[in-house]
């Protein structure tokens, strides 16, 4: 499915990217991948632990699984960056940039400032990181390999492991106290960024704790809420009523390699996007700062409208 000009939907997720290493960026071919998700609501006592949703695996065996995440390659012709369109349920396109170059990070950040120039106070930013996990828990942790940021329907995936430099604009963006960076386990992520790259994330909100506070009525309920220990998958199911694909094989894959596989880019993008969506739902529902209008990213090619 290749393509740099026409837009064509594909099943499930995002796509590959990379830098140094054997092949050139523009030589990489995209591949289809797919996952099946379903929505479910937890019922009963709010103090009970979350129950896994197996609804997509049960019932009539003859029923086809519903594909709720989609991937398409928009443009992989550049040596400095690649573009992908990602789809999550019936959300509008998540326009995703994968890069290893400081100049492209500068451009993406500038686009955020330009698009939100009058709405920067308390701007919500979804944040997540990836690194190569060690099978031996006694081994020293690998450095953060990938940083994901999401504002609205625009996601940046920056590969530290093969970058040419870490731009000053990224230091300034993460250190901007006007912004609220949201994620699951975000304090740990922020600590890793500080230790590994001296990148300080100025203002963070842990989604689990935020959900416990916003979605309970008493201090006792808040203190006992299972949201405190919930991961991104559980929070997505309970709050957004959607299933987030979280394959352990992808989570534990090699994030340091130059060319990320389609499923890696999908995984990385959706984590940041869902974090943004949860933050928006919990912090600023209806806040005009986060509307979908005027959300065009000038750094990306024009889309071809489908009839």
From TrEMBL:
Keyword Zinc-finger: no
InterPro entries according to UniProt: 3'-5'_exonuclease_dom (IPR002562), 3-5_Exonuclease_domain (IPR051132), RNaseH-like_sf (IPR012337), RNaseH_sf (IPR036397)
Keywords for this protein: Hydrolase, Nuclease
Composition-biased stretches (Low complexity): 25-39
GO molecular function, a single term: 3'-5' exonuclease activity
SMART domains, sorted: 35EXOc (SM00474)
Every 3'-5' exonuclease domain range: 96-287
GO biological process per UniProt: nucleobase-containing compound metabolic process
GO cellular component: cytoplasm; nucleus
Official protein name in the record: 3'-5' exonuclease domain-containing protein
């Amino acid at each position: 499915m290749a393509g740099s000009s026409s837009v064509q939907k594909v099943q499930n997720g995002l796509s590959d990217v990379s830098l140094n290493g054997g092949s050139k960026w523009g030589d990489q071919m995209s591949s289809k991948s797919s996952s099946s998700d379903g929505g479910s609501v937890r019922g009963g006592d709010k103090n009970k632990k979350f129950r896994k949703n197996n609804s997509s695996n049960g019932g009539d065996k003859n029923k086809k699984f519903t594909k709720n995440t989609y991937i398409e390659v928009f443009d992989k012709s550049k040596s400095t960056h690649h573009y992908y369109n990602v789809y999550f349920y019936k959300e509008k396109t998540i326009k995703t940039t994968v890069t290893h170059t400081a100049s492209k990070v500068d451009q993406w950040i500038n686009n955020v400032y330009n698009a939100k120039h009058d709405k920067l106070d308390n701007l919500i930013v979804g944040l997540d990181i990836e690194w190569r996990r060690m099978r031996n828990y006694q081994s020293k942790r690998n450095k953060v390999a990938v940083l994901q940021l999401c504002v609205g329907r625009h996601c940046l995936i920056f590969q530290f492991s093969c970058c040419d430099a870490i731009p000053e604009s990224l230091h300034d963006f993460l250190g901007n106290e006007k912004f609220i960076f949201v994620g699951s386990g975000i304090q740990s992520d922020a600590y890793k960024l500080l230790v590994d790259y001296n990148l300080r994330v100025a203002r963070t909100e842990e989604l689990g704790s935020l959900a416990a506070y916003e979605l309970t009525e008493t201090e006792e309920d808040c203190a006992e809420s299972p949201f405190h220990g919930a991961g991104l998958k559980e929070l997505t199911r309970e709050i957004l009523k959607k299933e987030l694909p979280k394959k352990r094989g992808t989570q534990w894959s090699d994030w340091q390699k130059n060319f990320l596989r389609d499923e890696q880019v999908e995984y990385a993008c959706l984590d940041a996007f869902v974090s943004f969506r949860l933050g928006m739902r919990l912090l600023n529902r209806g806040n005009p700062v986060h509307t979908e209008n005027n959300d065009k990213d000038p750094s990306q090619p024009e889309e071809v409208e489908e009839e």
